[in-house]
Automatic annotation (TrEMBL):
In the C-terminal section; belongs to the PPC synthetase family. Its EC number is 4.1.1.36, 6.3.2.5. The lineage of its organism: Bacteria, Bacillati, Actinomycetota, Actinomycetes, Pseudonocardiales. Catalyzes two sequential steps in the biosynthesis of coenzyme A. In the first step cysteine is conjugated to 4'-phosphopantothenate to form 4-phosphopantothenoylcysteine. In the second step the latter compound is decarboxylated to form 4'-phosphopantotheine. The chain holds residues 179 to 405 of 405 of the full protein. It comes from Actinomycetospora termitidis. This is Coenzyme A biosynthesis bifunctional protein CoaBC. Residues 11-227 are annotated as: Phosphopantothenate--cysteine ligase.
């Protein structure tokens, strides 16, 4: 039987990608399937948490049982949903792949290839939701980030991850090694691997396995810290 170590806790998990409109028919998006975030939400609910899953663009996934799903598409919508649900949360996990840029202005009409220069699409930087959540400094609330890093060796991925954890200021960071050494596609596959880094300097290797198994290891560490 699963531990009920998240009973009475509210956890917010973001999953999938964000999609930024360029015009009424086109988007800037990414290939995140949402599988890791959905697994985190499902496992948290099975362990007794009240779960809000802020779901961006994903593959066709079954919504997890007993989870509140808030569907979003743009980064701005994901930001509002995460900040809103995060107000009374014990844990916020940003597993989503957020678009770094969006169109500076969304065209009202379909951009025509004949009368527009490809360079005419101007982009602007999106807000960093994870950093905003951390900046709120809600006492007792834990914040978990994700990072996909490429590197030729474990120590590269670990040192990039450690630097990112410090830059973002989160309590935990899950680092997935993508491409490079393993060539493993953490985005679309059913399996995942990496490290769980803690702000206390800890690092736990997360062996290759199902996204549910990886989720369970993350919740083990989070539940221990909440206790
Ligand atoms: O900076 P980078 O995109 O590598 O950081 C990844 C982490 O930051 C993930 O947890 C992701 O959900 C979060 N993030 C965010 N808002 C952004 C970009 C990333 O919350 N605009």
């Amino acid at each position: 039987a699963l531990p009920r170590d998240l009973e009475g806790r509210h956890v917010v998990v973001s999953a999938g990608g964000t999609a930024e409109p360029l015009d009424p028919v086109r988007i800037l998006g990414n290939r995140s399937s949402g599988r890791q975030g959905y697994a985190l939400a499902r496992v948290a609910a099975q362990r007794g948490a009240r779960v809000t899953l802020v779901s961006g663009t994903t593959a066709a996934l079954e919504p997890p049982a007993a989870v509140d799903v808030v569907g979003v598409r743009t980064t701005e919508d994901m930001r509002s949903a995460v900040l809103d649900a995060g107000k009374d949360a014990d844990v916020v996990v940003m597993a989503a792949a957020v678009a770094d840029f969006r169109a500076a202005a969304v065209a009202d009409f379909k951009i025509k290839k004949t009368d527009s220069d490809p360079d005419a699409i101007r982009l602007t930087r999106n807000p960093d939701i994870l950093r905003e959540v951390v900046a709120e400094q809600v006492p007792g609330r834990l914040v978990v980030g994700f990072a996909a890093e490429t590197g030729d060796a474990d120590h590269d991925v670990l040192s990039f991850g450690r630097a990112k954890l410090e830059r973002k200021g989160c309590d935990f960071l899950v680092v997935n090694a993508v491409g490079g050494r393993t060539g493993h596609n953490a985005f679309e596959g059913a399996d995942n691997e990496g490290w769980l880094l803690g702000a206390d300097g800890s690092s736990v290797q997360l062996p290759m396995g199902s996204k549910a198994a990886l989720a369970a290891r993350v919740w083990d560490a989070v539940a221990e810290r909440l206790a």
